[in-house]
């Protein structure tokens, strides 16, 4: 087509003599006669090319969609429902790299185009069984739709809850975790990332098998969801177990002045959860330069990294009460004989802290550590003292 256009246009020019012989043999009069027809042909060709392209797309698109739909449940991927419905099966086979990438996808429009009831995700980090589950079951009862549960146990351990339990099939794919090691933080990030896949999860509480709630759900839900801060313990400890664990190899990402310490039992909002999940900048520094027994990542990584990235979002205190008064490397564990009225009142009273910049006497919503033997007395006293 192109040569005919060229010959046709150039035939009317005086320079036509420079054309190759096969053009020159064409009589000038015939060419002039044929020119309008050639023009018309070229015009029609171009129009038809565009028409084919245009209608070609129009006719192939529905066919592609039709075959796409039959792969999954028909129509699912076409509507918003597909994007906002939480995953039905928690046992996906994504690697951590795949999972963290997926979980770090954030909508840039802040308003949700659907009625979104924010949920609190309870992240249970445990080695094996959840001996205090009956207490938690009672705590959650009647509040369906306002919470979700995720459990990270050792890979070899299968939790076996009946289908009527809130813990039924809430175990996520896990990996080996050891106290004080980076793989403990990996497990916490894995819990966060799995919970982030449900877009209605707005707040994320990390608890262990020895944690209990010390207020009822009706109290805990607004306390957490209305807080403008995330409850991450973070303080600057000038001593050997604080700044003494800092390693100058962490420069320039982490300075001594940034270095923070805090217990691992956090409560964070969605934004902070994504900061933790997406981090690739500070992670290698802590992996390489915060190692037992000189340093413990689970006490420093999140508090320090978040103090650098989002200090204004942190309450710098934890919601989980722990008794360190006995000294040593491990906090006190309370068993059957410890669960008295005086002890429970002590958990609930005599506190003072900041909540949304105001002083409050309710500083802890959860407490640890409780032995399995504490379950029976706790079940007896919870209605009166914890309100559930
Ligand atoms: C993940 O599971 C799907 C089926 O559920 C399978 O097709 C895929 O090969 C699996 N991928 C890996 C990496 O195991
Ligand atoms: C799980 O629990 C059911 C009853 O609740 C019991 O029949 C079954 O043997 C248990 N399975 C394992 C592996 O413990
Ligand atoms: C928490 O500490 C950071 C500095 O480490 C500070 O910027 C922030 O205001 C503190 N949060 C509250 C609620 O005081
Ligand atoms: C929940 O706890 C609060 C405060 O502790 C109490 O006022 C309220 O009555 C309790 N709610 C229920 C349903 O027991």
TrEMBL record:
<keyword id="KW-1133">Transmembrane helix</keyword>
<protein>
    <recommendedName>
        <fullName>Core-2/I-branching beta-1,6-N-acetylglucosaminyltransferase family protein</fullName>
    </recommendedName>
</protein>
<feature type="transmembrane region" description="Helical">
    <location>
        <begin position="30"/>
        <end position="52"/>
    </location>
</feature>
<keyword id="KW-0812">Transmembrane</keyword>
<dbReference type="InterPro" id="IPR044174">
    <property type="entry name" value="BC10-like"/>
</dbReference>
<keyword id="KW-0472">Membrane</keyword>
<dbReference type="GO" id="GO:0016020">
    <property type="term" value="C:membrane"/>
</dbReference>
<keyword id="KW-0325">Glycoprotein</keyword>
<dbReference type="InterPro" id="IPR003406">
    <property type="entry name" value="Glyco_trans_14"/>
</dbReference>
<dbReference type="Pfam" id="PF02485">
    <property type="entry name" value="Branch"/>
</dbReference>
<keyword id="KW-0808">Transferase</keyword>
<dbReference type="GO" id="GO:0016757">
    <property type="term" value="F:glycosyltransferase activity"/>
</dbReference>
<keyword id="KW-0328">Glycosyltransferase</keyword>
């Amino acid at each position: 087509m192109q040569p005919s256009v060229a010959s046709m246009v150039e035939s009317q020019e005086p320079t036509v003599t420079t054309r190759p012989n096969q053009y020159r043999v064409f009589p000038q009069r015939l060419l002039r006669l044929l020119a309008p027809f050639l023009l018309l042909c070229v015009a029609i060709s171009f129009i038809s090319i565009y028409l084919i392209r245009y209608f070609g797309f129009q006719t192939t698109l529905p066919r592609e969609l039709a075959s796409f739909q039959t792969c999954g449940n028909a129509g699912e991927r076409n509507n918003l429902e597909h994007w906002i419905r939480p995953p039905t099966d928690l046992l996906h086979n994504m690697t951590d790299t795949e999972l963290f990438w997926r979980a770090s996808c954030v909508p840039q429009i802040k308003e949700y185009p659907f009625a979104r009831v924010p949920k609190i995700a309870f992240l249970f980090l445990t080695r094996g069984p959840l001996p205090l589950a009956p207490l938690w079951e009672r705590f959650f009862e009647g509040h369906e739709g306002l919470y979700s549960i995720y459990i990270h146990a050792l890979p070899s351990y299968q939790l076996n809850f009946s289908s009527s339990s809130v813990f039924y099939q809430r175990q996520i794919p896990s990996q080996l975790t050891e106290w004080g090691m980076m793989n403990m933080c990996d497990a916490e990030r894995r819990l966060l990332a799995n919970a982030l896949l449900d877009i209605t999860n707005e707040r994320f509480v990390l608890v262990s098998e020895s944690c209990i709630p010390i207020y009822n759900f009706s109290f805990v839900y607004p306390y957490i969801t209305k807080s403008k801060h995330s409850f991450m313990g973070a303080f600057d400890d000038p001593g050997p177990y604080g700044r003494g664990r800092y390693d100058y190899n962490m420069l320039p990402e982490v300075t001594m002045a940034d270095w923070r310490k805090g217990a691992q039992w956090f409560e964070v909002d969605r934004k902070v959860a994504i900061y933790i999940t997406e981090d690739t900048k500070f992670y290698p520094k802590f992996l390489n330069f915060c190692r037992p027994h000189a340093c413990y990542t689970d006490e420093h990584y999140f508090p320090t990294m978040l103090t650098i990235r989002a200090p204004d979002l942190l309450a710098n205190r934890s919601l989980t009460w722990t008794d360190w008064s006995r000294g040593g490397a491990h906090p006190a564990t309370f068993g059957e004989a410890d669960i008295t009225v005086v002890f429970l009142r002590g958990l609930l009273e005599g506190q003072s802290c900041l909540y949304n910049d105001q002083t409050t006497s309710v500083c802890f919503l959860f407490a640890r550590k409780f032995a399995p033997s504490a379950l029976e007395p706790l079940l007896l006293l919870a209605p009166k003292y914890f309100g559930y």
